[in-house]
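Preliminary data (for renewal application), adenosine-5'-triphosphate complex.
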Amino acid sequence: MSETAQSDTMLRVEGVSKSFGGLQASRDISMSVPKGKITSLIGPNGAGKTTLFALITGFHKPDAGKVSFLGEDITGMAPQDIAMRGMIRTFQIVQPFAGQSVRENIAVGAHLHIRSRDAALAKAEEVARKVGLGDRLDMDAAALTVAGRKRLEVARALATDPKLILFDEVLAGLNPSEIRDVIPVIRAIRDEGVTILLIEHVMQAVMSLSEHTWVLNQGELIAQGPPAEVVGDPLVIEAYLGKGMAERIARQRMTAGGAHA
Ligand SMILES: Nc1ncnc2c1ncn2[C@@H]1O[C@H](COP(=O)(O)OP(=O)(O)OP(=O)(O)O)[C@@H](O)[C@H]1O
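Predicted structure:
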């Protein structure tokens, strides 16, 4: 690997495996995330996406393999230590601290680096504006809608001043117009220089946001490449729709093409 290629890589996963009892949730996974880009991780339910996030961010310890962040081996480090280095993840289920305002909830993230309460609250306000929560700062966070809670989760992560954010399904549970509103927020975070790795089931978002996608199925990486190419990969189609589907779809296309000829 050349030095340039090495320094363009923010995150590198090499041969990572993890089992829970008899179930192998991650099997010899190797992947990388380039600096300054949005990369996506897709795969059917139970493929092992969230487990991989947990292995990368220190919430699980790999049975084998190595995770490097900005060239440093972080395998087995605690989540807090990884967050201090600039890598933060979000969670699928957002649990705001009830009885606390949106501002105070976001300030929790800011406290990773900022000790002063006033400075952390000021940082929270700045971040809230970026994610579209600027008008809800004084609201009880527990009263936020699903879409508001998702923005809160993004804001809390952003308030830690990360270099890399791992978004775990930030668009899940949102309606199409809410999704359309959040996509530019994610893009703006990348434009400010934060690298992003996202798990997403909303393919419209995967296609429009990410340049490169990795596909997991049953704990294994089965494909990678530009999203538009990956969705046509027979292995990916079969992972989502079942065995034999790729061939059936191809046959239907040929028949439809023939009918139009
Ligand atoms: N702590 C755990 N203990 C036991 N099994 C687990 C644990 N965490 C995950 N698993 C199992 O590992 C497999 C992968 O789960 P994971 O949540 O990583 O998949 P996923 O791709 O994120 O799924 P989804 O898209 O539904 O969120 C599943 O079979 C799950 O039941």
